[in-house]
UniProtKB/TrEMBL annotation, chains A, B:
UniProt-listed Pfam families: ROK
Essential cofactor(s): Mg(2+)
Enzyme class: transferase
Keyword Aminoacyl-tRNA synthetase: no
SUPFAM superfamilies tied to this protein: Actin-like ATPase domain
Alphabetical list of CDD domains matching this protein: ASKHA_NBD_ROK_BsFRK-like
EC number annotated for this UniProt entry: 2.7.1.4
Name of the protein in its database record: fructokinase
InterPro entries, A to Z: ATPase_NBD, Carb_Metab_Reg_Kinase/Isom, ROK, ROK_cs
Upper classification of the organism: Bacteria, Pseudomonadati, Pseudomonadota, Gammaproteobacteria, Cellvibrionales
Keywords for this protein: Carbohydrate metabolism, Magnesium, Metal-binding, Zinc
Length: 298, 298
């Protein structure tokens, strides 16, 4: 039996199963304080499964230190979630469960799910973006998970403002309207229109602005990684009409520079929705629990 | 004896040596037509070194197809250098030299040089940018060379215009002033001021604009790869006063989000000049000739 903890900023999803596609039980726990939330996590695994689990895969919200030899490995860095800043979630788990704990970000966990079991099955180079409360991302290039001294933060790349969006101040607590998270996350949509995305008409001009930014971010990631696919998930992407708009803007921005056809690709395959909505993260965590990083990280 | 071909857009540098730090002879050949240039390359190796070389490392200008199983592997894709578009430089070399040919981009070759013998020796995650006729880039993350279906094109990421540069139309033949190459390459500097960078005073406001763009690109790459170092080389970076300006702008853009201190880094180490100016490319090619990709690419 293996354990999964998808530790998101608003909820934790815990699960146990024999493999990523054989989940036996799961539970959702609110993300409150580290003490309270982690006590519930501990209870889920220890009380419901007295038979020890063999390993745990953890996909945690960030910023989190993932540098192997750093004394802060597994620690949440300075974060707007103040009570979590400095909390070492890896250390908590290793001191409570005497099994291997494999740690990555929540976004990488979802990427792993889609990579091994979802829309990107069989590919070797894939970028994943989640557009919701924030904009997060991860990448597997040539079957390797990308991680330098830390995990990627694609959403904080700088953006070129849409001509009709110049005056919007943005919502990123660090970068205002300078970064993609500041202008294209769920809270940015709400800040402009005073209502959440799912209440905004498909005809609203706001979606063209949104698609322009997400196309720009996709284009930057294609220019950086040359992936076979850029998967877009998260709450905002439930507006499925966005995909064709993003593809149209991508072509307008690219202007033929990245020669997709030379690699037998087209924009419809490149810009892709998720396949495992809601389950990708837990499946990715269970993959990690069962197989570890293996060939994923050098 | 090993062979190196640093195949740049304006000149080819060919060399032979026992190892990257033991170059015996080299020659510079103008980049004209494929037939003419490659005949001179052939002549350099065959006439001057009748004793067969054991392998050749090639670092070629792009866009070039580097997808292993693609029938166009080693072919220059559609490019402003029309006579080279569709020319397969790898096939030319394999049919003329019966030795292993290891192919990468000219920028990756320079990155390899700096990574193994220069400013990045001993590190595991490094990004390299060359700012000259164009803006090119490469990355080694966790000791792996980054390459999806194709090589990186960092210079074509979209940029946020400097407030004093809004009206500049840019010089990128594909993206005008929308991408970094369009606004911060050598030709962009010349298009604004009607003279090359080395004739422009250090006090000129243009350098602040230039530094803003390069800081933005650096910031995007830090947000993407979380490298230990971003090396900036190429003709424009010979203006060494740019480095401190870029560091200042980097801090202004980052606003403390990427917590360098958590990883024992600081902006002075992060934003770095090259160490092997002029030789990095050939050394990288000789490294490839001697050692192949080894652990560099999966």
């Amino acid at each position: 039996m293996f354990g999964a903890i998808e530790a998101g900023g608003t909820k934790f999803v815990c699960a146990v199963g024999n493999s990523p596609d054989d989940i036996i039980e799961s539970a959702v726990i609110d993300t409150t304080s580290p003490e309270k939330t982690m006590a519930q996590v501990k209870q889920f695994f220890q009380q419901q499964f007295p038979e020890p689990i063999r390993a745990i895969g953890l996909g945690a919200f960030g910023p989190i230190c993932l540098e192997k030899h750093n004394e802060n490995f597994g620690s949440i860095l300075e974060s707007p979630k103040e009570s979590w800043s400095g909390f070492n979630i890896y250390r908590y788990l290793t001191s409570n469960f005497k099994v291997p704990i494999h740690v990555t970000t929540d976004v990488n966990a979802a990427l792993l799910g889609e990579f091994y079991f979802g829309i990107a099955k069989g590919l070797h180079s894939v970028v994943y973006l989640t557009v919701g409360t924030g904009i997060g991302g991860g990448a597997i290039i040539n079957n390797r998970l990308i991680s330098g001294i830390s995990h990627p933060e694609f959403g904080h790349m700088m953006c070129k403002p849409h001509p009709k969006d110049i005056d919007f101040k943005g919502v990123c607590p660090y970068h205002g309207g300078h970064c993609f998270e500041g202008v294209a996350s769920g809270p940015a949509i709400k800040a402009r229109s005073k209502k959440p995305g799912y209440e905004i008409s498909e005809d609203d001009e706001l979606w063209d602005i949104e698609a322009y930014y997400l196309a720009q971010l996709t284009f930057n990631l294609v220019s950086t990684f040359a992936p076979q696919k850029v998967i877009l998930g998260g709450g905002v992407m439930k507006q499925s009409h966005l995909f064709d708009r993003i593809r149209t803007h991508f072509n307008l921005l690219n202007k033929g520079y990245t020669q997709l056809d030379a690699f037998n690709l087209n924009v419809n395959e490149l810009v892709s929705p998720v396949a495992l909505d809601g389950n990708a993260g837990v499946m990715g965590c269970l993959y990690l629990a069962k197989y570890g990083f293996g060939k994923l990280v050098t």
